[in-house]
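Notebook p. 47: complex prediction with 2-acetamido-2-deoxy-beta-D-glucopyranose.
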Amino acid sequence: MAKLGLKAMVAAVALVLVATATTLILTLGRAKADDPEKVDAWFARLSHAKRKTTRLHFYFHDTFSGKSPTTVRVAEAAMTKESQTLFGAVNIMDDPLTEGPEPESPLVGRAQGFYGLVGLDSMALLMDMNLVFTSPKYGSSTLSILGRNPVLETSRELPIVGGTGIFRLASGIATAKTYFLNLTSGDAIVEYNVVAMHY
Ligand SMILES: *[C@@H]1O[C@H](CO)[C@@H](O)[C@H](O)[C@H]1NC(C)=O
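Predicted complex, structure tokens below:
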């Protein structure tokens, strides 16, 4: 009787492992970059596809200071140093996105892109970045943001203009809210809420 119980347990564990692996492979299947024929086949089935809505919540860490900055100033105009709004400066970033606001919080992805300071009279960023989601559920699926970010306002609305992987043909809205800002270093932690529609 005890022997039978052990066998059943081993079989159950094996079944769970196989099921987990299958789910993982199926989920990751479309997250990887597909070859052109597969992308074509995906579009051919699109008229039968249902539109999905995904909501995401995470924190964005933009760090200039310390030993491992994730944002760098790559250009600035001669007038940037005198400008109250830093007009004419451009930064490149590869910023971590985390579950919670603490820097040690689990990583869910990265924001790779650049932003330029484009406001003469008020501080405004032109943001052009790709959010790359690294957790197993999303593979390396991306969402692209291109929009205006008036950083000193409480809540900012940025358009999602596209996506890849599970976020193909995405459109939507990201709202950004500053959680922490150090005006001396420029370091910021920003809370993001994303609503994306995709297929
Ligand atoms: C703000 O940044 C400055 C310069 O890097 C640093 O000396 C200071 O400790 C920072 N303040 C906070 C509250 O993080």
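Notes: Strands lie at 52-62, 71-75, 90-98, 107-117, 125-133, 142-149, 155-163, 171-181, 188-198. The pocket of 2-acetamido-2-deoxy-beta-D-glucopyranose is lined by residues 65, 182, 184-185 (CB under 6 Å).
Next step: compare against the earlier run before touching the bench.
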